[in-house]
Structure formats: C-alpha cells, structure tokens
Amino acid sequence: MNFYLFTYILLFFFTLFILYKRQLIIPYIHVGWFFNILTFTYYAFPLIYIIYWPENSFKLLGRRFNDDFIKDVSLLLLVCQLSFIVAEAFVKREGQIKIYARKYYQIKPIYIYILLFCTYLMFFNRWSSVGGFLKVIAQNRGEYMNDAAESSGLFSRYDILFYVVTTLLIYNVCIAKDFVKKNIFLIILYILFLVLPIIMGTRLILLTTVISLFAGLFFTKRDYLERNKLRILITGILLLFGFSIFSTVRNQLTEYFAYGKFDLKTEDIVLMPSELFTGVLSHHSIESGVNNNGFTYFKRLTPNSIVTNLGLEPTIPYSQQIANESIYSSGVAVYTIPFLTDLYFGADKNLVYFLLLSIFLYLVFTKVQKRIYKKNVIYLFLFYTLIYYVLRVESSVWFGRFYLSYGVLVMLFIILGKKIYKVDKLNNRDLI
Q1: pLDDT of residue 80
Q2: Which pairing describes strands 99-104 and 421-425: parallel, antiparallel, or unpaired?
Q3: What is the Cα–Cα distance from 174 to 181, expressed in whole angstroms?
Q4: Which contacts (CB < 8 Å, 24+ apart) does range 148-157 have?
Q5: What is the mean predicted confidence (pLDDT) over 268-281?
Q6: What pLDDT does residue 204 have?
Q7: Could you give the CA distance from residue 86 to residue 162 in angstroms, rounded to a whole number?
Q8: CA dihedral in degrees (5, 241, 198, 36; nearest 10)?
C-alpha cells in the first residue's frame, strides 16, 4: 500500500468521526456520508483489492493496473478527502435544529396510482423503438442502450416519474402507520415495476429506493431503525451479495430469453460485486486513449439543448467517449462515471481545480439539503432518492435527473393546489 492511499484511509476514518459528531445535532442523514462512503467504495476498496489480490482482480476485471496508475488514483483520493474535510470546516456548527414539520399531510394514493400508471406506459414506450421490452431482455445492455437513448424523447423518461413516485410513496409509508396495509395493491404494483429494470440488468433503481426508504425512516422513525439495526445490517449484506450473484444470473437470463437455454454453473458465480470496480475501470479506460477537452465540468452540467442554442459545441458523455476512443472500448457505452473521475477529467486533470470543485460541490449539497429540510420535507425525500446518482454517474446524467425530477414534483404541487404540510418552530413532532 502506497503512502497516498494509507494517508487517505486515515483521513477517511477521521472524517467519519467528524460526521458522526455532526450527525448528533441534525435530524436528517448528513449528505457527507454519501460523499465519503461512496468515494471509498468505488475507488479505495477496489485499489486495496487490486494491490493485495492482483491475480483475482485480473480474472474478475480482465485487465491489469500498473503501479503508476494506482499511485495516481491514490493521490486523487487523498486530495478528494482533504476537500471533504475543508468543506466540513466551512459548514457552520449549530445546536439542535428546532424547525420541524409539525403536521404531515398524506398524499392521496390516487395521485400515486396515476403517476405509477404513467411510469409503466413510459417504461414500455422507452423500449418500443428498439423492438420492445421482450426483445431487450434477450440482449446485453450495451447492445440496446445507445439506440434507445438516441430514439427516445422526454415522454420516454420513465425514470423521472419513477423518482417522484418513489418519493411520494416512501413519504406516505413513513408518516402513516397503516398506509401499507390500506394500499397493499399499490405496493405490489410498485414492487413489480422495480423487478422490470432488474430483469434488464439495472440495479441502481432498487438501490436508490432502499437509500430513500432508509433516509425517510431515519428522519421520521429513527427508533424503528434502532430496534432493527442488526436485521437491517444483515439485509444490507445479503442485498450486496445478491446483486453480485445476479450479475451472473442476468447473463444466463439473456441466454434463456434469446435461445431458451439456462446453464448456470456454480463456478461461474462471483461473490465479489463487479459494481464496486466501476470507478477504477472507468478512470483507467479514460486514461487509456480518451481525448480530454479541457475544463468542461460545468459545461457538461448544462443540457446540450441549451449549449447548442448558445452556439457552443455540445459535449459528449464520458461513457460514449470511452466507447468511441478508449483502447478498452467494446464499441458501446457500457461504463458509468463516478464522482471522482468525472470531477478530475472535468477539471482538465488539474489538482487545484479538482480540489476547489470538490469543496464547492460538497458545500452546495450540504446547504441545499439544509434549506430544503426547512422549506419542504418531501423535497428532502426526493433529495435522498437522487443523491446516490451524484456520486455514481457523470454530471451530465445526474444534473438532468435532478432538475427534471424536482420540476415534475413542483408542478405536481401546483396542480394539487394545496399545502402539503406546515412548519412550526417547536421542539417536538406531531406525526400522523
């Protein structure tokens, strides 16, 4: 283990201690947990695995990583962790926040039914241009994602409606004790929809749902989490290994839907989740042949429709650049680009810019989280539904999901024409 990585790990645990102390005085999950833990998950853990089990990593990933690459990524991790610590130093220390949602109003289930029905329609419309859902599940994701993205429009963005549905559903589950019992059919329809992307090999939607539910329970029913923490931990571990096993099963499902055969062998099952290596693989792929076009982070945040209207050249997602240019390309966009890699190359590989950008984004999300908590609790639920994407995919993807999802939710509130809840400066909560 090199000096940079060792120092990063020490600072990582130091930052977790700072977050733990900070968490004691705020009623919602601090966004810093996501920045720190997911960065460790997608970069530090894979590096440790590659260093100590190089042959296993080669069998799993199909490529080797030289010492210079490991050292460079370790340095980036260290700089990134320093940025988190500096950002936390800027966060104003406060006493216990005393602004609570005193009265919660349940969103009528009929609204969620309508939105979920529209989500189903948009989901199947999304894949109609590439032969339909049944044809899609008989292919690997890389074979249809590009064509589907090129031919789809705003009315096939089922993911945006799904995030809103998830937010409203989890909000109701958390504030109303008998909501699940009274709306069991709605819950079943929602779970069935979760299954559809999983069959296609997309696990992120399920993961964001779990995160949103956990954050909602932490905010409204923390005592429930305390009573069931061991059960929740075991469930999380099983879910992690389940995701890993399913990545193997998914390949066999593709064979089954395409050719009618299913031949799963025990030796083909890998318990080490390949998902954890996404950051290192995408970073290595960009380093291996992709042309970086200067300081482009904020330009990539801007939708290409606006960029084009301004007379500027539209940006190409890193995932597509890897497909077109990297020596490790398979010819299709199959990579997603986590936070550290997106930020580093968006800052033109300048460590100073990288440091400043990381501090800026950390502070922005910390302030936004605090503000929406005070203004509208449902916005906070949506925040947790989407925050995983900020650390998991590149800026051009997560930013669009943020502004479209919040836009839909705001329009929904305007259409409903009623106040969802009222805020009072009290020291207690009166939940219904």
Answers
A1: 95
A2: antiparallel
A3: 13
A4: 152/126, 155/122, 155/125, 156/122, 156/125, 156/126, 157/122, 157/126, 157/404
A5: 73
A6: 82
A7: 35
A8: -30
Whether the per-residue pLDDT at 423 is higher than 70: the answer is: no
Place of tokens 């696990």: 203
Contact 337, 389 (CB under 8 A): no
Q: CA–CA separation, 399 vs 427, rounded Å?
A: 35
Cα angle, residue 372 at apex, residues 370 and 375 outer, rounded to 5°? 115
- Reading the block at residue 143, the tokens are 């074979």
Amino acid at position 378, single letter: I
C-alpha angle 398-400-401 in degrees, rounded to nearest 5:
65
Strand partners, 430: 103
Q: Six-digit token pair at 71? A: 């050292």
Q: Which residue has the higher pLDDT, 396 or 97?
A: 396
pLDDT of amino acid 124: 85
Q: Sign of torsion, CA 250 253 259 261?
A: positive
Per-residue pLDDT at 7 exceeds 70: yes
Residue 162, token pair as written in the block? 């799904």
CA dist 170 and 382 (Å) reads 10
For residue 387, give every residue at least 6 positions away whose Cβ sits within 8 Å of its Cβ, in sequence order, or none.
Answer: 31, 34, 211, 365
Which of 1-5, 160-164, 325-329 shows the lowest per-residue confidence on average (mean pLDDT)? 325-329
The answer to whether 104 touches 432, Cβ cutoff 8 Å, is yes
Alpha-carbon span 124 to 425, nearest angstrom: 46
* Contacts for 50 with CB less than 8 Å, ≥ 6 apart: 57, 65, 70, 280
Question: Could you report the per-residue pLDDT of 22-69, keeping only the tens digit for each?
Answer: 888 888 899 999 999 999 999 999 999 888 888 777 766 767 888 889
Q: Buried b vs exposed e over 407-424: b needs ≥16 C-beta within 10 Å? A: ebbeebbeeeeeebbeee
CA distances from 178 to 164, 181, 183 (A): 21, 5, 9
Residue 344 has pLDDT above 60, yes or no: yes
Residues in the chain: 432
Query: What integer best gives the mean pLDDT of the chain?
Result: 80
